[in-house]
């Protein structure tokens, strides 16, 4: 699979762009475990052209994470074009346009999935951005606004005609948000449309090796994109790759390995964002690493309330002291995943 001249090999795995999740510290871990492509968090075009500090900061990319994309959203053509030019200066491998975010404050303003209610504007914006920048442009969208407007098969052809070089499709409508089951039949229909020449990336309900294999084998997509299942589980990329290559499940991480991973994640978050922001923004990850542990409430509260790095490290170390160092199979680990 290629995006422009970027060769991603066969059956690449993409980390979905997620606000307050896919920051550099999390991208670092996902790349280590085999993510082939990563995306920034959503970058608001209006915030970027006004040089809002938070928006500009999101453009920061590092060599270790390439190939990497900056994802933009907005509802005005001129602002999105200007933002795309600014994003290009940060030297991403490609720019992605967010036409899929279902969050009310974004979609009801006409941005994100709100673009699905104004297809002429979506196409005008996409074509203008493709012409304005020299790097590849891609799009991420949904099946349609609601069950009565699942327009993705025709829309995919129209988007291809604007000059985009890949299309990611989340198998839900905007009305569904993240509820119900993703419908991959329409994603497969887009991929198997003989008029489609660009790569199709499938997204939605990829929760592990089996669902990823099904997406490739049954629906024929060129790549799969994984979102919510990565939170608290960045090693999912290695799980999937091992399964696709060998047909065998990866040995589960031990509790000690998860503790070391959480400590590394904390370290990277603080390195890039400083204190206390680096601590605030890693809290959801810290608790998710250990969500399966019983009687964890007291420890979880420490992880999501402390603002002291040393105290957090001590709390993480106490987890193996309390629970031991076994995985769910009762085996200890060799720590090979942590040779950074």
Task: Give a quick rundown of the structure.
By secondary structure, the protein is of the alpha/beta class. It contains 15 helices and 10 strands. The strands form 2 sheets. Strands 3-10-9-8-7-6-5-4 form an 8-stranded parallel β-sheet. Strands 1-2 form a two-stranded antiparallel ribbon.
Return the CATH class of the largest domain: Alpha Beta
Oligomer classification:
single chain
By CATH's scheme, which homologous superfamily of the largest domain applies? Answer: Aldolase class I
Extended strand count = 10
Query: Secondary-structure element order, as H and E?
Result: EEEHEHHEHEHHEHEHEHEHHHHHH
SSE-based structural type: alpha/beta
Q: Roughly what percent helix?
A: 40-55%
Point out poorly predicted stretches.
328-340
Q: Helices and strands in order, then pairings?
A:
Blueprint: E1 2-3, E2 6-7, E3 13-15, H1 24-32, E4 38-44, H2 45-49, H3 53-57, E5 68-73, H4 77-88, E6 94-99, H5 104-107, H6 119-132, E7 137-142, H7 152-162, E8 167-170, H8 184-191, E9 200-203, H9 209-219, E10 223-226, H10 236-246, H11 255-273, H12 277-280, H13 283-288, H14 297-305, H15 309-323
Helix pairs in contact: 1-11, 4-6, 6-7, 7-8, 9-10, 11-15
């Amino acid at each position: 699979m290629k995006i422009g001249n970027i060769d991603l090999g066969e059956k690449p795995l993409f980390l979905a762009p997620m606000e307050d999740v896919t920051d550099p510290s999390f991208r670092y871990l996902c790349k280590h475990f085999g993510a082939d492509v990563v995306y920034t968090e959503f970058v608001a075009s209006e915030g970027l052209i006004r040089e809002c500090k938070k928006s500009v900061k999101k453009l920061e990319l590092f060599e270790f994470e390439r190939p990497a994309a900056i994802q933009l959203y907005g509802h005005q053509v001129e602002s999105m074009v200007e933002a795309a030019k600014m994003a290009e200066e940060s030297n991403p491998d490609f720019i992605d346009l967010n036409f899929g975010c279902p969050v009310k404050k974004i979609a009801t303003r006409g941005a994100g999935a709100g673009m699905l209610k104004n297809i002429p504007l979506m196409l005008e914006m996409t074509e203008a951005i493709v012409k304005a920048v020299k790097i590849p442009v891609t799009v991420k969208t949904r099946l349609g606004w609601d069950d009565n407007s699942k327009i993705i098969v025709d829309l995919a052809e129209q988007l291809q005609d604007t000059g985009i070089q890949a299309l990611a499709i989340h198998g839900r409508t905007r009305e569904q948000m993240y509820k119900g089951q993703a419908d991959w039949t329409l994603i497969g229909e887009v991929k198997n449309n003989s008029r489609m020449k660009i790569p199709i990336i499938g997204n939605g309900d990829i929760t592990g090796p089996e669902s990823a294999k099904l997406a490739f084998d049954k629906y024929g997509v060129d790549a799969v994109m994984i979102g919510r299942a990565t939170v608290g589980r960045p090693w999912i990329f290695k799980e999937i790759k091992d399964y696709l290559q060998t047909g065998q499940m990866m040995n589960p991480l031990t509790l000690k390995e998860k503790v070391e991973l959480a400590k590394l994640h904390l370290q990277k978050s603080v390195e890039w964002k400083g204190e206390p922001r680096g601590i605030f923004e890693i809290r959801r990850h810290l608790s998710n690493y250990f969500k399966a542990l019983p009687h964890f409430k007291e420890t979880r509260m420490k992880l999501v309330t402390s603002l002291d790095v040393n105290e957090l490290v001590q709390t993480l170390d106490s987890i193996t002291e309390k629970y031991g160092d076994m995985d769910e199979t009762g085996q200890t680990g060799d720590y090979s995943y942590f040779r950074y």
